[in-house]
Amino acid sequence: MLLFLAVVLFAVLHLVPAFPSLKARLKDRFGKAYGMLFAAGSILSLVLIVLGWQMADRIAVYDPPAWGFSANLALSFVAFLLLGVFLFRGKARQLLRLPLAMAVVLWATGHLLANGDQASVILFGGLLAYGATHLAAGFAQGFRPSPEVRQGHDVIALFVGVALYGVMIQMHQHVIGVALFSIQDMAIFAK
How far, in Å, CA of 112 to CA of 129, rounded? Predict the structure, then answer.
């Protein structure tokens, strides 16, 4: 139940930017505190997601396909590239408009292909629904990122996306509790 509520809290908070008029009203109401409140709510929702995930039962709901793990690695790689695009002000961010929401959709889809337990369905299914809703609302509202484009940011974004993916692959065991593979596993290729 905690996991479900945490995902809902995360989704509601992060859908606010997809509705510019709502975001503007909240900024007017809370002033400079809006950013702090948004950050605090985001951190709280992430902490609750982690706690909810750790406490959740791993009841099998469906058998993921045999290729689900590989598909997850590929979709997550693209998601991290999109995260890099989101973090920088290149032309790709202007073209894609909502790269972070796209990243969430791909990341969640990949994880649903690799995991078939109830906790995964709640977490990744909920985040997939959030990401798809954010995309639909953002495009319907005509959302555009900041018009500022900085030269070289597209290249930097790709390098950062690849680097973050590599870090997550290595840290997955420690952060999530599930080992994927590590650089040490690749040592057999060096011999």
Answer: 12
pLDDT tens per residue across span 164-182:
999 998 888 887 777 776 5
What's this model's pTM, rounded to 2 decimal places? Answer: 0.87
Q: How far is CA 54 from CA 1, 32, 111, in A?
A: 12, 34, 16
Which position has the token pair 């590929």?
74
Burial class of residue 1 in the structure, from the number of CB atoms within 10 Å of its CB (0-12 exposed, 13-18 middle, 19+ buried): exposed
State how far the Cα of 11 lies from the Cα of 126, in Å rounded to an integer.
8
Dist. CA 55–CA 131, nearest whole Å: 24
> What angle do the packed helices 153-175 and 68-87 form, to 10 degrees?
130
Report how far residue 20's alpha carbon sits from residue 11's, in angstroms, rounded to the nearest whole number: 16
Which pLDDT does position 18 carry in this prediction? 83
% of the chain beyond a pLDDT of 70: 94
